[in-house]
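Because showing beats explaining, we think one record worth quoting, sequence and backbone structure tokens together, and here it is:
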Amino acid sequence: MKSLNVVGMGRLRLPSALLAALLTAACATNPATGRRQFSLMSEDQELQIGQQQDVEIRREMGVYDDRALQEYVSGIGLRLAQQSERPNLPWHFTIVDAPAVNAFALPGGYIYITRGIMAFLDDEAQPLLSLASTFGASSEASPSGSAP
């Protein structure tokens, strides 16, 4: 029987088969890479975390007050989402009212573009590139498909 040394607990004895089973059960296939990776978060947990953090982002950063622009970005994002590794995820796209030049994602399909980046985008291709790079980072960041 192999033993596992856990800091502060001395040596913990676990049969090798049990240890292997636990590690295998905690793996998920990353939809972007096709590789199995260690994951302790289910898709339901990912969605719940995204919902909770979305409230915080909206409260702290604010949502940019331009309904037409919000709809425009959402339309582009939803077209991209249909081509992503997770087209059935309930995707959300929001322009936040921040001057920084940035785009970022939360777990569960929440993608944000800042007001600051919008000033540098001249045509539809540029918001697409910004959203596409955020999708790529989001899909590769965790085995369940979203950035932590």
Summary: DSSP finds five helices and seven strands in the chain. Strands lie at 3-6, 10-13, 27-29, 36-38, 92-96, 103-106, 110-114. The two ends are 36 Å apart (CA to CA). Confidence is low (pLDDT under 50) at residues 1-6, 139-148.
